[in-house]
């Protein structure tokens, strides 16, 4: 996949390097030349421009890019301006960083549906989300093993856990199965609720469309199971 990451501070730089290490094409963009110099040997391409300048912004190769991530954190105004330019350019997929609640409200008003909170979410977690199909969340137990929530892949819908062969083919353990449903609250506003469908699913449990499996295993095996 091809990514453009605008803003190469701690979060943006870390995410850019992790996505590059996973075999993706990554273009890192920042106004500060020293950041570009530091990263040019670690990511696919680097560009030193002020992306909040509409003229400079048009030089970015947006047309063939799968995901644009606005990771600017130290300048909320620049973040919002670049995000607005991305929306105007109708990029395929836009993810933007929010520094605080007000900033997030502004991004929502612009029409951004995917928002990053680096203070709460790590670059490692986001790199997995972006590279693995259907991944919702993950928790690293150590450098080798993780617990992951993922939407049941389409090709496994209607098949049982035993038939799929999680243990035999992938050496992965299915811990439980979840389902997200929409419910009305007491004040009439709908909210998304996660329900546990099976405590510990049995081998003959059949996976259904839209269900979420919680799996445990070696990171390499999980990536093999969920790779795009």
Describe the structure.
The protein is α/β, with parallel strands linked by helices and 228 residues long. It has 2 domains: 127 residues, Rossmann fold (3-Layer(aba) Sandwich); 94 residues, Alpha-Beta Plaits (2-Layer Sandwich). The protein is built from 9 helices and 11 strands. Helix 1 packs across helix 6 and helix 4 packs parallel to helix 5. The longest helix has 14 residues.
Topology:
Elements: E1 2-6, H1 10-21, E2 25-30, H2 33-39, E3 45-48, H3 54-57, E4 67-70, H4 76-89, E5 94-97, H5 101-110, E6 114-116, H6 123-131, E7 135-140, E8 145-151, H7 161-164, H8 166-170, E9 173-184, E10 190-198, E11 212-218, H9 219-226
Parallel strand pairs: 1-2, 1-4, 2-3, 4-5, 5-6
Antiparallel strand pairs: 7-8, 8-11, 9-10, 9-11
Shape: elongated
Helix fraction, binned, reads 25-40%
The name of the CATH architecture of the largest domain is: 3-Layer(aba) Sandwich
H/E element string?
EHEHEHEHEHEHEEHHEEEH
Percentage of β-strand residues = 25-35%
Strand order of the largest sheet: 3-2-1-4-5-6
* Count of discrete domains: 2
Number of helices: 9
Domain RCK C-terminal: 134-228
Domain RCK N-terminal: 1-116
InterPro entries: NAD(P)-bd_dom_sf, RCK_C, RCK_C_sf, RCK_N, Trk_Ktr_HKT_K-transport
Pfam families: TrkA_C (PF02080), TrkA_N (PF02254)
